[in-house]
Write a structure and sequence with these properties.
There is one protein chain. The chain has 75 residues and is mostly helical. The longest helix is centred in the middle third of the chain and has 70 residues. It contains one helix and no strands.
Length: 75
């Protein structure tokens, strides 16, 4: 009887650690997928943002260059 109890306890403990290991492995895989997804999203967003800043500054410069003669005092 004592041997059966020890065997059942060993099986239960083994199943517990197996489940814990599986959960830990899935967590690592999930973090890995999140990191890869974030990396693939950040790169295009950064490129788009830098292009937007560059285009905006170019347009502002053109506006100032076009309006400068109108603002400058006439001789």
């Amino acid at each position: 009887m004592s041997n059966e109890t020890n065997n059942e306890f060993s099986v239960a403990l083994n199943n517990y650690f197996k489940a814990l290991g599986t959960l830990a492995q899935q967590l690592v895989e999930l973090v890995n997928v999140v990191i890869k997804t974030a990396g693939s999203l950040i790169e295009p967003l950064g490129k788009t943002a830098s292009e937007l800043v560059c285009n905006t500054s170019t347009n502002v410069t053109k506006v100032f260059q076009g309006s400068a003669p109108a603002i400058a005092p006439k001789k």
